[in-house]
Triosephosphate isomerase
Amino acid sequence: MRKPILIANWKMNGSLHSNQALLVRMLSKLRPFRKTMDMAICPPFPYLFQVRDLLGYTGIALGAQNTSRASSGAHTGEVSATMLQEMGCRYVLVGHSERRALYHESDRDVAARFRLVCSANMAPVLCVGETLEEREQGQTMAVIERQLRAVIGETGMAGLVGSIIAYEPVWAIGTGRTATPERVSETHRAIRQFLESCQAGVGESIRIVYGGSVKAGNAADLFQSPEVDGGLIGGASLQADEFSAIGAALANTVTEADSECDTLD
Ligand SMILES: O=C(CO)COP(=O)(O)O
């Protein structure tokens, strides 16, 4: 069984003061879901230390929003994967569509970052997804397969094991528009089938989460498909009540039998 995971991507938001207030409120609300799912918070780099301290022993993991494609050296302004690992990060987002579009990260750049995150013993969260234009041209899976192949070319299928894929249709990010639950489910299934065709077992075991305008009001519908293993949440992760309601919706998808297995673990 794939354990659900809920990831907060704060993007370039927050302050020392607001992070503290948000987390104090959020952590108590997320506490009941700790056994049922994995959770992670990805703040901007300068707040990693603060958030790590506030997360303490809650069982909620720390994540980063990106890393350098170089491992060390003369790369002013960059942050390496080993530094993030040293700071206590367990997850690192790679290939977010905002990085691809606004900072011109190519598939090869993303693949290099992915490899470095794996080498530093963290789990990459590989963001994939199509633009509206690509979707309208029926290119969704061609785009996603190209994005996946770049990573497979860099690490082989071994790199995918233990990583997470986030399906984030670009047109759904921060727009209030979500893909329909059916469409999300179909795309996640197609991603699994593609990975299974590359190596049996990988597609079925990998966690695929959905991101793009997930809110408390649509989370239950989006998470109802067994193909959807959780969410990567942007705007709604900046509001404690909204984010914890999304957590509750995800927790509700875990059957009693599953949670008994978890308790036995
Ligand atoms: O980009 C996202 C998460 O990485 C999604 O952002 P929103 O939830 O704000 O649409």
